[in-house]
Design a protein that fits this description.
The chain is α+β, with helices and mostly antiparallel strands. The chain has nine helices and 14 strands. The longest helix has 25 residues.
Length: about 300
């Protein structure tokens, strides 16, 4: 996956949010933002349904590993009661920290292995279902991460009011690149919050697009998901991908590469990179710091955001 042109970046201009306020009025929460970027001063106002905000806050929360293990154990225990075993044989499962033990009497070794394999399939599927129902994805048996692809797709309609307010602020003559830079600068001006590493045992350290707006803070993968959801709401056919390097994440946008753009060819398509993190302002196609070094050395991964 070759890396395209290296962009030369001038001295950074720091993101500066000059005003933030939110208040509940009727069934909506009204937001007002002001910020300053290299193009001047900007103001943005929009409203979000309180019911939608409450739903967003309830469906993604720090992961409860104890609850997940309980669900998995209960599934294994239920399956163990239905196993076909020789007359007089008994199979039980006993919970232990991090899993379970199988206790059996009157079962030969070959069948015992088959039982263990079957119960492991049940356990894995129960964990998979529990993790997915809470917008996470499993990395391995002990680590999970927020399911950025699903969260971005879920928030496309949710971010429509924000996208509409931005389009109105820009006016009908704004081109696509100018619009993308406007969204990026807005997100860069939101205070950066150094949340926990996204690869954790409980999925901590991620804010959904709505909790970024309500809490007025966010880190790299949180802001990247918000950028992807907002852009897809604006441009429904735009190809998007999450791009990961060690300790950082940003968005690849399926656009023609400009002469100064940093882009990747992924799966046959060119994706221009966009970093909405802040606190420094960067335009579409600009990448800096350790992320740039990692990309140049091929130390990155990606996952496309579904339509």
């Amino acid at each position: 996956m070759p890396v395209f042109a290296l962009v030369l970046i001038s001295l950074p201009a720091w993101a500066q949010q000059t005003y933030f306020n939110s208040k509940d009025v009727g069934n909506a929460r009204l937001f007002e933002y002001k910020w300053r970027d290299p193009d001047g001063d900007h103001a943005l106002r929009f409203g979000l349904s309180l019911a939608d905000i409450a739903q967003a806050e309830s469906e993604f929360q720090p992961f409860d590993n104890t609850a997940a293990q309980t669900v998995a154990f209960n599934a294994v225990q239920s399956k163990a009661k239905t196993l076909s075993v020789p007359n007089g044989a008994e199979v039980e499962v006993a919970r232990k920290i991090g899993g379970y033990d199988i206790r059996a009497r009157g079962v030969e070794a070959p069948q015992m292995q088959q039982i263990a394999d079957n119960l492991k399939v049940v356990r894995d599927q129960a964990l998979e279902d529990y993790v997915a129902s809470r917008f996470y994805s499993r990395i391995d048996d002990t680590h999970i991460m927020p399911d950025h692809r699903r969260i971005a797709k879920r928030y496309v309609p949710a971010m429509a009011p924000v996208a509409q307010a931005m389009s109105a602020a820009l006016g009908p003559n704004a081109d696509q690149r100018a619009t993308i830079n406007y969204v990026m600068h807005f997100l860069q001006s939101i205070p950066y919050d150094q949340l926990e590493n996204r690869y954790t045992s409980n999925g901590a350290g991620f804010e959904t697009p709505y909790t970024i707006l309500s809490g007025n803070k966010g880190d790299c993968d949180s802001k990247s998901v918000a950028l992807a959801a907002t852009l897809r709401a604006m441009f429904p056919t735009l190809k998007l991908t999450m791009v990961y390097v060690p300790e950082h994440a940003f968005v690849g946008i399926g656009l023609p590469q400009g002469s100064a753009d940093y882009a990747l060819r992924l799966g046959g398509d060119v994706f221009v990179l966009a970093d909405p993190t802040g606190p420094d302002f960067m335009n579409l196609g600009e990448v800096a710091g350790r992320a740039l070094d990692a990309l140049n050395n091929g130390k990155f991964s990606y996952q496309e955001i579904p339509f």
